[in-house]
Amino acid sequence: MIFDYAIEMDYINKNPTDNYKLPKNLEYEENEEKLVFLEKEELKVFLKIAKDEGLPNDYEFFSLLAYSGMRIGEVISLQWKDLDFQNSSLFNYEDRL
Q1: How many folded domains does the chain comprise?
Q2: Residue 8 domain-assigned (yes or no)
Q3: CA 87/CA 85 separation, integer angstroms
Q4: Residue 84's Cα: distance from chain center in Å?
């Protein structure tokens, strides 16, 4: 749809996905070794190590990742204006629109 819109707006002349076809036999094997999740107790140990032995702000960074559900890029891109110190929270971007 984005390419169709780009054509409509005269940004591009041709949709590069027009002649693309998905492979018929797309086999996906989930490799469980690549999936890494910490159990509750493992997370507690990890955060304690981050706090006691980590670099400055490691504990805060990893705690925010673990408890907010934010992705690394979202946490890294936070700015001071995104913090609400009076309510001890992050602003909800949807509320700002």
Answers
A1: 1
A2: no
A3: 5
A4: 21
Question: Which residues 6+ apart lie within 8 Å of 82 measured at CB?
Answer: 90, 91
The whole-chain average pLDDT of the chain stands at 83
- Whether 20 is covered by a domain: the verdict is no
Alpha carbon separation from 21 to 11, 17, 24, 26, 95 (Å, rounded): 24, 9, 9, 12, 40
Residue with tokens 């940004």: 11
Token pair in block for residue 39: 């159990």
Amino acid at 2: I
Alpha-carbon span 81 to 97, nearest angstrom: 15
What global pTM score does this model have? 0.56
